Amino acid sequence: MSNRAPVLIAGKWQESTGSKQFTATNPGTLESLSPAYPISDWSECDRALSAAYDAFQQMRNVSANTIADFLDAFAQQIDSSNAELTEIAHAETALPAKPRLSEVELPRTSGQLRQAATAARSGSWAMPTIDSKANIRSCYEGIGPVAVFGPNNFPFAFGSVSGGDFAAAIAAGNPVIGKANTSHPGTTRKFAELALHAVQEVGLPAATVQLIYRLDHQDGAKLVSDHRIAAIGYTGSRRAGLALKTAADAAGKPIYLELSSVNPVVMMPGALEERGADLVTEFVGSVLMGSGQFCTNPGLIVAIESSATESFIAGVASKFQEAASGTLLSPAVQTSLTAAIETLTKAGAKLLCGGQSVPGRCSVSNTLLRVTGFQFIADPETFQTEAFGNASLVVVAKNLGEAAKVLASLEGNLTGCIYSARNGSDDADYGRLADILGQRVGRLLNDKMPTGVAVSSAMNHGGPYPATGHPGFTAVGIPASMLRFGKLTCYDNVRSQRLPALLRDKNPTGKTWRLVDLNWTTDDLATS
To answer: Going along 247-366, which residue ranges are E strands?
Structure first.
């Protein structure tokens, strides 16, 4: 089996002991790609877990500056390998090489690694807290080995050994076992090669970054519940994520999930009257961008009966039919999308356009569906079926009250948006809808499609279930995202020389924000 790609275990690329294998598919040509990749067996997982556990014991004594140096070095390696990474990822995902991969996603990826490096050096993310009178001190520290499961739609920025979960886990002081997405194993392998170079360059433990490509379901559940794993980051389908959550929960392991979201967009009457044609263009551009394969894709529109609403719907349907349908990430995505559309139509949604697989291509025609507010309220679970791809469902409510009931029946989502008139004609009703929608989303937007997720310290890429497994955490936005992979440790009457540097009287950086006697400060602790 020497023609198979090796796995990265304990700092060495080695032949897998797994007997099964798989290959990636080029969605643009539907051809299998070389080489084959192994499906790891449990003995391989066991070795990776033991190596990660040993690496964490060593990382507890590694300075934050060294960890930051790794993140910076890795970011530089990524920037220097732009062309090669882009070529591999384009072949495996059919995502456009330019501008999507090389000019947008890759700089975002190296940029968030550098942000993580800055946060690690600062130490403020750890929220060091000192009660000088009681001599009690606390801060967040690394939690232990972290397993990261990457998604299919962002091979760089959310990759298991390159993306936001990875950056946050490493910056918090933890080794990572990456589980590649089977849609782009070669891309993930290249990132792991670059990461290993950076590990060796700065002298981190050899098993700081490890990579396996695929597991069977039983071993995946066993991995996330193993005593050597401290936390898990997962982005992907609800079904697979919840299976992992069941196993992790049973073992008491924190698992941070990004699962599914229809990202409702409310078009208020005044907005459609005022600038309906512009909103058609904006909405179509958002839904069809990247063939709709964004976790923040606007898959649900809520509007109120009016001639302006009918014009908006007709305009969207027309542009959907005019636009060429894009290539989906994999045949599995194509199958999932057509199945979701079938579920919606069987439940009573009217198919306005699209809904069919494109012969000879990994593609589905641009799809728009429609239901009434009454229909949606009667069966909200079915009508919130996520159609991951270039499809969206319009819900037409009779009036504001029915629109409010539609929003009240929503599950948790990553985002929710309200478009309102610029002249203030919708302002009286905005608050009623925003109060309801805001409780069901992690990010509330005004007059802006939700598709983009800025790498900002203020960003929340999270939300109530089933968008994620926990509404209090974000997968994007450093330093907040680092807290998922931290353990809060309290030091009660511990001698000064035994304290972490962040909790000693002298501020170790002179710039770290610490809560000292209920006041945030960068000063040293005053001594009498």
So the answer is: 255-258, 264-267, 300-304, 350-353
| Alpha carbon distance 183, 92 (integer Å) | 7
CATH number of 44-259+474-482: 3.40.605.10
CA 373 to chain centre: 31
Bridge partners (DSSP) listed for residue 516? 130, 519
Catalytic site positions = 258, 295
Q: Which of 273, 301, 267, 283 is nearest to 449 (CA)?
A: 283
Cβ proximity of 499 and 137 under 8 Å: yes
Type of residue numbered 178? G
Sheet (strand 441-446) strand order: 350-353, 367-372, 391-397, 300-304, 264-267, 413-419, 441-446
The Cα 249–Cα 244 span in angstroms is 8
Question: Do you find a cis peptide bond into 466, omega within 30 degrees of 0?
Answer: yes
- 413 neighbors 384 (Cβ within 8 angstroms): no
For the question of whether the overall pTM of this predicted structure is more than 0.90, the answer is yes
Does pLDDT of 1 surpass 50? no
d(Cα 89, Cα 70) in Å, to the nearest integer? Answer: 24
Q: Cis (ω within 30 of 0) for the bond into 359? A: no
Reduced to 3 states, what is the DSSP secondary structure of residue 79?
A: helix
Task: List the domain boundaries for the chain.
Answer: 44-259+474-482, 264-446
* Confidence at residue 13, expressed as pLDDT on a 0 to 100 scale: 98
The Cα 122–Cα 478 span in angstroms is 12
Nearest one of 280, 292, 453, 301 to 387, comparing CA atoms: 292
Q: Is 292 left (phi over 0), alpha (psi -120 to 50) or beta?
A: left
Report the interhelical angle of 106-122 vs 64-80 (nearest 10°).
Answer: 170
Is the distance from CB of 255 to CB of 245 less than 8 angstroms?
A: yes
Q: Contact 274/422 with Cβ under 8 angstroms?
A: yes
Q: Whole-angstrom Cα distance, residue 436 to residue 119?
A: 35
pLDDT (tens digit, 9 = 90+) per residue, 471-522?
A: 999 999 999 999 999 999 999 999 999 999 999 999 999 999 999 999 999 9
Q: Which candidate, 170, 168, 69, 60, places its Cα nearest to that of 121?
A: 69
Distance of alpha carbon 211 from alpha carbon 8, whole angstroms: 5
Burial class of residue 326 in the structure, from the number of CB atoms within 10 Å of its CB (0-12 exposed, 13-18 middle, 19+ buried): buried
Place domain 264-446 in its CATH homologous superfamily. Answer: Aldehyde Dehydrogenase; Chain A, domain 2 (3.40.309.10)
SS3 of the chain: helix, strand, coil, percent, to 5: 45, 20, 40
Kindly state the DSSP code that residue 485 receives in the 8-state scheme.
G
